[in-house]
Amino acid sequence: MRFSRLGMLGGVSLVMSATLVSAGGGGASASLRASGPSNITANSFTTNFSVMKQFKSLAAAGHGKIATILPDTVSSTRYVAYDAPDITKALQTAGVSSSNYVVQNALGSDATQLTDAQTDISNGATVLLVDPLDSGVGAQIESYAKSRGVKVIDYDRLTLGGSRAYYVSFNNVLVGKTMGQGLVSCISAWHVSKPKVVVMHGAATDNNATLFAQGYDGVLNPLFTNGKYTAVAHTAGTWDAPTQENEFQAVYTANPSTNAALVPNDTTNAPIVTYLQSLHVKPKTFPTTGQDASLTGLQNVLAGYQCGTVYKPNAIEAQTSVALALYLRAGVKPPTKLVNATTADTTGGVKVPTVALTPKWVTTANMNSTVVKDNYVPASQLCAGSYKADCTAAGITP
User: Which candidate among 25, 71, 149, 224 keeps its CA 20 to 30 Å from the CA of 180?
Assistant: First the structure.
């Protein structure tokens, strides 16, 4: 992902008449009016979290808790490995005390996600960051929060039909387009003749999966139409890895000449790669795709079974979300250069104010200068065991 480093960002200005409130305090004086750091944009944040220090005065001006509720632990490794710790670090770096935030995971349960939100509001949350399991529970949470004057930020996934105040995510159509273009480039580089492609999809209940498909279908469908590629099958869609593997095996068994797959994330692609290896499919002969830059996904890229992975630095998404939450918690309108886009809620034509971030395609050619440089995945883990030689070939030193 491309993010610019700003040299000197403007300081935090506060207008106070009498009282100071400690960072992350539970009740700001009515006479305290805060403005956030000047010149903050969606591109201001870096993976070292240093920009969050400029939000300390804004954190001091806010009141109530910030509650984050993530969806599950199985659809992607990101929620445990990155989102939870990165959101926590962003809050702590901004000076929010541990008594004024909570980071939770619904563990795949709609009921748990709704109950967590209700409990958080009862315990004093004034802002919720919610990555909804689906739009149904997301809309329930947002309706409940709205009736109690609590602001909601959709984190990573948009709640269709919801009433959230803002949405923070990577440009998900671009994520899909990046995967599609990556597959096309890889098919050419690996000299795959007469490409016969199975197109896998994420869960139909996830609006992001719909947007990903919009992106990669826009790349692949013209190639199917003009006959350069053959579409072997489009699967029903899931984020459950064993189910995705079963769908792939069924397609491959029925169509053994299949020689490429568009798979929408690393987690669901991992068992597909393992299956291909069990059939003694050679490296760089059967292109697949993914996203999230997981350890397994990156190692599959190094080994020549995955063309690349879409890198979406969770540290950036976490920081922009926390920054936005701090503005809302302090009753301050976020700057327009932070909220840099709108996203259509297709259920009602509503334009949702959005912080839209830019993904990046990672291959062996740029792995060292992206995920390794950012310490997103430590080189010592990436290059362990049989992957040491692959790392050396890619210019990566543990």
Answer: 71
For residue 147, give Cα distances in angstroms to 8, 101, 125, 152, 163. Answer: 40, 21, 13, 12, 11
Q: What are phi and psi of 153, to 5 degrees?
A: -110, 120
Is the pLDDT at 20 greater than 90? The verdict is no
**C-alpha to C-alpha distance for 31 and 20, rounded to whole angstroms:** 10
57 phi, psi to nearest 5 deg? -70, -35
Q: How far is CA 193 from CA 7, 226, 252, 287, in A?
A: 48, 15, 17, 12
The greatest distance separating any two alpha carbons of the chain, rounded to the nearest whole angstrom, comes to 75
H runs (alpha helix) in the chain: 56-61, 78, 84-93, 110-122, 135-147, 172-189, 207-225, 241-254, 266-278, 295-303, 314-329, 379-382, 388-393
Return d(Cα 263, Cα 238) in angstroms, integer: 11
Alpha helices in 7-134 (DSSP H): 56-61, 78, 84-93, 110-122
* Tokens 């994420």, residue located: 202
Q: Give the tens place of pLDDT for each residue, 175-221.
A: 999 999 999 999 999 999 999 999 999 999 999 999 999 999 999 99
pTM: 0.84
CA distance 83 to 2: 19
Mapped onto helix, strand or coil, the DSSP state of residue 324 is helix
Q: What is the mean pLDDT of the chain?
A: 91
Q: Please, are residues 20 and 349 in contact by the beta-carbon 8 Å criterion? A: no
| 309 vs 297: CA distance, rounded Å | 7
Q: Do 330 and 30 meet the contact criterion of CB atoms below 8 Å apart?
A: no
φ and ψ at residue 245, rounded to 5 degrees: -65, -45
Q: 104: which 2 tokens?
A: 């939770």
What sign for the dihedral angle of Cα 243, 205, 311, 104? negative
Phi, psi of 343 (to 5 degrees): -125, 135
Structure tokens that stand for 177 in this block: 């387009």
